[in-house]
């Protein structure tokens, strides 16, 4: 069945792959990112493959922007019942060097953003008596040097997911989290730059530590999101799936 999906942070990386995958699954997809123009490539790929997508510029941490964005999606594509909270940023630093802004910026995009988007979209999900929420956590939720802010936010995403599953289950809405390991995107490229390592070396080094001996690709995460968003996953809720090429947790 065709539904309307919103994927945040979908101009690139995991979000772009997930938006394309959900469109290929037959859904109309709103490609949401900070800069509407930056969503053009994802939308063009969806359209070229015969799907339906629109670009929507919104800062997910801004309540007014979120309200306007979800209203626009409902008007242009139909009531959104699938939500993938993927938008994310890094502000890595060791605790003693981490600024207030580093902390707040990460909390605002990951946690406040997922909260605002979910609160706005659940109205449409409850009306429809069906919905899917997928939240992007991370293996960093288990703790990671230099990421006090990010690991706290990604652990928070897991608690948030479980609570949504409990509150919204009676309305036919499931909520699940995906916790990726090392995925080749601009985000991991940024980490390599920060620590002064060439990206190819960084990826090769990471791959050696991963049981399947390769780094993840955005499509690996998109495939898991596709499953959680499917009709047949209706009895799977409140789960955290580590997609990391090996066991975690
Ligand atoms: P990415 O390539 O950096 O893409 C993230 C996207 O989110 C960017 O397009 C970014 O826009 C957008 N964004 C940032 N702040 C936003 C805001 N306030 N409102 C709307 N959009 C915003 O990252 P990625 O690697 O694909 O990561 C996607 C998600 O997976 C994130 O939640 C990340 O934490 C998580 N994750 C990634 C990995 C990994 O290895 N890559 C591992 C575990 C978890 P701008 O470009 O304009 O900033």
From TrEMBL:
InterPro entries, per the entry: KR_dom (IPR057326), NAD(P)-bd_dom_sf (IPR036291), Sc_DH/Rdtase_CS (IPR020904), SDR (IPR050259), SDR_fam (IPR002347)
GO biological process: monocarboxylic acid metabolic process
Keyword terms of this UniProt record: NADP, Oxidoreductase
GO MF term set: oxidoreductase activity
EC number, as in UniProt: 1.1.1.-
PROSITE patterns in UniProt: ADH_SHORT
Top-level lineage group: Bacteria
Keyword Lyase in record: no
Any Pfam family hit: adh_short_C2
Chain ranges of the Ketoreductase domain: 3-181
Family statement drawn from the similarity comment of this UniProt entry: Belongs to the short-chain dehydrogenases/reductases (SDR) family.
Protein name as annotated: Short-chain reductase protein NovJ
Organism of provenance: Microbacterium terrae
């Amino acid at each position: 069945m065709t539904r309307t999906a919103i994927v945040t942070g979908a101009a690139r990386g995991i979000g772009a792959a997930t938006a394309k995958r959900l469109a290929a699954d037959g859904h109309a997809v709103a490609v949401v990112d900070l800069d509407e123009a930056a969503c053009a490539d994802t939308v063009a790929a969806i359209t070229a493959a015969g799907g339906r997508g629109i670009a929507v510029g919104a800062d997910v941490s801004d309540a007014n922007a979120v309200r306007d964005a979800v209203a626009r999606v409902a008007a242009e594509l139909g009531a959104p019942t699938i939500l993938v909270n993927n938008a994310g940023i890094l502000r890595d630093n060791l605790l003693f060097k981490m600024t207030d802004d580093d902390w707040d910026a990460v909390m605002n995009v990951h946690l406040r953003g997922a909260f605002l988007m979910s609160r706005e979209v659940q109205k449409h999900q409850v009306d429809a008596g069906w919905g899917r929420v997928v939240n992007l956590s991370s293996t960093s939720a288990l703790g990671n040097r230099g990421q006090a802010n990010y690991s706290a936010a990604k652990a928070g995403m897991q608690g948030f997911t479980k609570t949504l599953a409990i509150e919204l289950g009676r309305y036919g809405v499931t909520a699940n989290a995906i916790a990726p390991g090392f995925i080749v995107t601009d985000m991991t490229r940024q980490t390599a730059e920060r620590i002064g390592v060439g990206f190819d070396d960084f990826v090769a080094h990471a791959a050696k530590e991963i049981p399947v001996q390769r780094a993840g690709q955005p499509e690996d995460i998109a495939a898991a999101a596709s499953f959680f968003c499917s009709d047949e996953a209706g009895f799977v809720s409140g789960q955290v799936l580590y997609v990391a090429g090996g066991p975690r947790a």
